[in-house]
Amino acid sequence: xxxxxxxxxxxxxxxxxxxxxxxxxxxxxxxxxxxxxxxxxxxxxxxxxxxxxxxxxxxxxxxxxxxxxxxxxxxxxxxxxxxxxxxxxxxxxxxxxxxxxxxxxxxxxxxxxxxxxxxxxxxxxxxxxxxxxxxxxxxxxxxxxxxxxxxxxxxxxxxxxxxxxxxxxxxxxxxxxxxxxxxxxxxxxxxxxxxxxxxxxxxxxxxxxxxxxxxxxxxxxxxxxxxxxxxxxxxxxxxxxxxxxxxxxxxxxxxxxxxxxxxxxxxxxxxxxxxxxxxxxxxxxxxxxxxxxxxxxxxxxxxxxxxxxxxxxxxxxxxxxxxxxxxxxxxxxxxxxxxxxxxxxxxxxxxxxxxxxxxxxxxxxxxxxxxxxxxxxxxxxxxxxxxxxxxxxxxxxxxxxxxxxxxxxxxxxxxxxxxxxxxxxxxxxxxxxxxxxxxxxxxxxxxxxxxxxxxxxxxxxxxxxxxxxxxxxxxxxxxxx
Length: 481
Ligand code: AHR
Ligand code: AHR
What we know:
Layout: H1 3-9, E1 14-19, E2 33-37, E3 43-46, H2 57-64, E4 69-74, E5 84-86, E6 104-105, E7 109-113, E8 116-123, E9 129-131, E10 144-150, E11 162-166, E12 179-184, E13 198-202, E14 207-208, E15 227-234, E16 237-244, E17 251-256, E18 272-275, E19 287-295, H3 301-314, E20 316-318, E21 332-337, E22 345-350, E23 353-358, H4 365-370, E24 373-377, E25 385-389, E26 395-400, E27 403-408, H5 413-418, E28 421-425, E29 432-436, E30 439-447, E31 450-455, H6 468-471, E32 474-478
Antiparallel strand pairs: 1-19, 2-3, 2-4, 4-5, 4-6, 5-9, 7-8, 7-20, 8-19, 9-18, 10-15, 10-19, 11-12, 11-18, 12-13, 13-14, 15-16, 16-17, 21-24, 21-32, 22-23, 24-25, 26-27, 28-29, 29-30, 30-31
Helix pairs in contact: 1-3
The structure holds alpha-L-arabinofuranose (2 copies).
């Protein structure tokens, strides 16, 4: 059985079921998600390998070979057509044309399920999915349940990495107009014990960790690599439950009355579905989503316990974030441009500015050092790498507003994440391409001889699709210094 078969047996069937990794019904063999590739903007649908099975990641890899891919639709498996697509603007506008949010990279969150490769949905700030015309989801004070499998190590304090029920207008229409799973370490509203991150419920104008508006000590800090997150709510009753999605059973962090503030009892749910954003299209949050559902009716704890057992049996394991030329931590490397006409240029820096410069064995020592980088374990994720300047020890290659710069390590999580890059086999077929860990649609690129974290065919000048593949493919060799 799949999670939605279990919810059905419990009398609280799924009304929306989303996953890029697997079928959530044992009989489901339709499309799980759609990807769109950068080379020609065409799309293809990815289905499970077999009914009830894991996604056919190899089909995605074949379709996306030699280019970049985005997740353009996350299909609803429930039969209600509650598909998730690129979120439109609301109270806040997204970064894409006409205020739409970004789509997620199709390769930012690789995993295996029972040994079979699949990809999750890596949400960077600015990325979001939504359905403002969902059917069957809870409205007003109707009862519903939700679970999601998330990456408990990928989060931030921005508003709001959510999955669940939100406003049909994409605007903040008042307290109680949302009921969604939230994960992150925001302390702008509620919070739990420790320093986070926490599972909370986004009920609009408030992230709730229990009955109190601010702190509820019963809601623990949790950071399982794979996290099962549950929010359920009905008339004057709701609960928060969580677990390690890779082993063990659910704990109940809160179960009881609606929060101690006006507007949340009764609720005024509207029934739209969001992923990765706040109800008003707040786009500052990050997180990773693998699978999740919404039900009608208030699922029993026993039903959810069976769903947790099903998730554990799916055996989620993190897969490698890198490929191609392996980089040795501690070694000094150079990165040579491969675009025709630029092949004598290397990624370098002049003070804080990152550029490409013509470097050779007869260059000055100063230039050689400026074009050499010491490979370090990724400051923000040790599964990837950081590049320390040989010229300025203690300073690292990072992006800021998607422009590359060399900056001192100020010790912040933001700096560490912005300085973390994941090398993969070169997109052009030559050398290596180097993804920004926190923005996996973006790669280290030279454009007018300046360094950027660029996305293929994006909205900024340096994102231009022309010569993108060559501009992001670098030959990595031993450093000059
Ligand atoms: O409730 C927290 C956030 O507040 C909601 O997600 C958003 O709509 C509002 O800004
Ligand atoms: O470069 C993109 C973002 O810009 C970085 O993550 C952040 O530090 C800055 O706001």
